[in-house]
Design brief:
Elements: E1 2-3, E2 8-9, H1 13-29, E3 32-33, H2 37-41, H3 45-57, E4 61-67, E5 76-81, H4 83-92, H5 99-105, H6 117-122, H7 126-147, E6 149-153, E7 162-166, H8 170-176, H9 184-192, H10 205-217, H11 221-238, H12 243-258
Antiparallel strand pairs: 1-2, 3-5, 4-5, 6-7
Length: 264
């Protein structure tokens, strides 16, 4: 069904289920051949082709590469997930029991989360990262789902580069998902972020846990660079006016200077 007023496809539930099955396969396998999908998900070839076309048009999947057919026929199209497709998989495809495999497949999309997955396992932070990531995903979809908004680019001449556009139905929201340049910075900030430090004026268990979390992570050079940039940005935005920001930065600088073994 197509909403002619907005030229947006509105899909029925069985169609959503097929989309999710395809997305889940790509999440678990990273790449999968178009020709092999019908057998994998139990759908006919024509149905799979239609869904692949829609998923590609909606920006959830992309053609990763092509390879020669073993029988000398047409080239085989190999698909993988985009950033939005990975977000869709995390939100809708029940992939959490296999999250280690998904992380190994898509480290390049979320480099400081999935790309550091082995580090989190080594440091005993795997469950903590999973809990944070699940909370971010759930919160993200709850935020969009209540009023069914999507994020779109705003007037480039204005300071605000994005804006929310209200949609007519949840079905439309599910299909369109999010239209943003990149989900990686948003997810990284929400999973690893500094929001607890905005209230550093008050000692609390949550703040101490966040301090311990960051103290462990900055042993890694790339994560240390991320936090260096985040604290610098936070300080510039606050312009030294917010007590919590200043105390957070002070704590972070003291932490780095107290560890002489760090290479800054």
């Amino acid at each position: 069904m197509i909403n002619m007023a907005n030229n947006i496809r509105i899909r029925y539930r069985p169609s959503f289920e097929t989309d999710r099955e395809i997305i889940k396969v790509l999440a678990l396998e990273k790449e999968f051949a178009q020709y092999d999908l019908p057998k994998r998900i139990g759908k006919n070839y024509r149905t799979v082709l239609r869904h692949l076309k829609d998923l590609k048009k909606d920006g959830l999947i992309k053609l990763s590469r092509t390879e020669e057919s073993a029988k000398g026929g047409k080239e085989r199209n190999i698909f993988t997930l985009t950033e939005y497709g990975l977000l869709y998989a995390l939100g809708y495809s029940n992939i959490w029991p296999n999250i280690d495999k998904v992380a190994s497949n898509y480290g390049e999309i979320l480099p400081l989360i999935f790309g550091k997955w082995d580090l989190y396992i080594e440091k005993g932070l795997r469950n903590e990262i999973i809990a944070r990531l699940q909370a971010v995903v759930q919160g993200f979809f709850m935020q969009l789902g209540r009023e069914w908004y999507r994020i779109v680019k705003a007037d480039s001449n204005k300071e605000m580069k994005i804006r929310l556009q209200k949609l007519e139905s949840k079905e439309v929201a599910d299909r369109i998902m999010v239209r943003h340049r990149s989900i990686a910075p948003t997810f990284t900030h929400r999973v690893l972020g500094l929001s607890p430090f905005l209230d550093l004026g008050q000692d609390s268990k949550a703040i101490r846990e966040q301090q311990s979390f960051i103290k462990t992570l900055i042993e890694d050079p790339q994560l240390r660079q991320y936090y260096d940039e985040e604290f610098d940005y936070l300080l510039k935005q606050a312009k030294l006016e917010h007590e919590g920001h200043v105390q957070a930065l002070k704590w972070y600088n003291e932490l780095k200077s107290s560890n002489k073994s760090m290479k800054l």
